[in-house]
Structures are given as C-alpha cells and as structure tokens.
C-alpha cells in the first residue's frame, strides 16, 4: 500500500458525529492550492460534503493562500469537487437522504502526490451522547491507569 502523509485531521468530527462508514475521495485542486496542502496549511473544521447534480462537492474547507502565488490564488473557502466512482456517489446520495445522515471530512492526506480526503457517513450526536462518550473515555483511562500502576508495583 502506498504511503500516506497526513495533512489535516478533523478532530471534532468524531466528537460531534457517530461515523457509520468511511470513504476515500480525490480532491480537485489548483496548482497553488496543492502547494498549500503540501505545506499543511489546511483546516477541515466546519467542512462538509454533499451530492449535487450527480457530483460530490466539498464545502467550507479552508486552504490558506500560497504566498508566492499572488494573483493565481483562488479564494480560501471555495467549493471543491471530489472524485469518486459514480456507484459510490449514488450510494452516498441514497444514504444521505435517510434522516439525519451527513457526509463529513475526517482527514486530508497525500498519497503518491495526490491530495485525498477521507469522508465519513455520519449521524449527528446529541449533547447527552457526547457526555456519555466522554464518560466512557474517562472510565477507560482510569482502568488503564490502574492497570499500569498495578504492573509497576508488581514488577518491583
């Protein structure tokens, strides 16, 4: 498998949503945009994807302007086309029509020089679900700490 270089991670996505499935898609970028992506100047916060007219689009992803490319820089939050097989796009369209499902970008990475985005088919979490997830994570952490402490004491 080709090596992937992680560029940006959407940390809030896994907190705000339950991820049902993940998909990989290519991103159509201009020359100066790919240079900014390679410089890790990307923000996925508040970004989302949607199917329009049979094509998949990524909205609200921020790519900082590439400084040396003065006038050729497109706007930083423009809508960008995503590349996926038609069959996968149709499947996503069918699933997003279901109540409460949306497509959120989880991370953007470089693979063999191409920018790709990992999309998650997601269902929004309610506030109490978020608190429950935090409580579970804290409980797991406490158990791990107790186990590590026991291992240290037992090993002496």
Walk me through this protein's architecture.
There is one protein chain. This protein is an alpha+beta fold and 156 residues long. The chain folds into 2 domains: 122 residues, Small protein B (Small Protein B, Chain: A, Beta Barrel); 31 residues. The chain is built from 4 helices and 9 strands; from the N terminus they run βαβαβββββαββα. The protein has a 7-stranded antiparallel beta sheet. A two-stranded antiparallel ribbon has the order 3-6. Strand 8 and strand 9 form a beta hairpin. The mean pLDDT is 84.
Strand content: 35-45%
CATH topology heading of the largest domain: Small Protein B, Chain: A
Kindly report the spatial arrangement of strands forming the biggest sheet: 1-8-9-2-7-5-4
Shape call = globular
Examine the secondary-structure arrangement and name the CATH architecture of the largest domain.
Beta Barrel
The largest sheet is: 7 strands, antiparallel
Radius of gyration: 19 Å
**What structural class do helix, strand and pairing data support?**
alpha+beta
Structural domain count: 2
List segments where confidence is low: pLDDT < 50 over at least 5 consecutive residues. none
Number of helices: 4
Main features:
156 residues; alpha+beta; Small Protein B, Chain: A; 2 domains; 7-stranded antiparallel beta sheet; two-stranded antiparallel sheet; 37% strand; globular
SSE map:
Layout: E1 4-9, H1 11-16, E2 17-27, H2 31-38, E3 42-43, E4 48-52, E5 55-59, E6 62-63, E7 80-83, H3 86-97, E8 101-111, E9 114-124, H4 127-155
Antiparallel strand pairs: 1-8, 2-7, 2-9, 3-6, 4-5, 5-7, 8-9
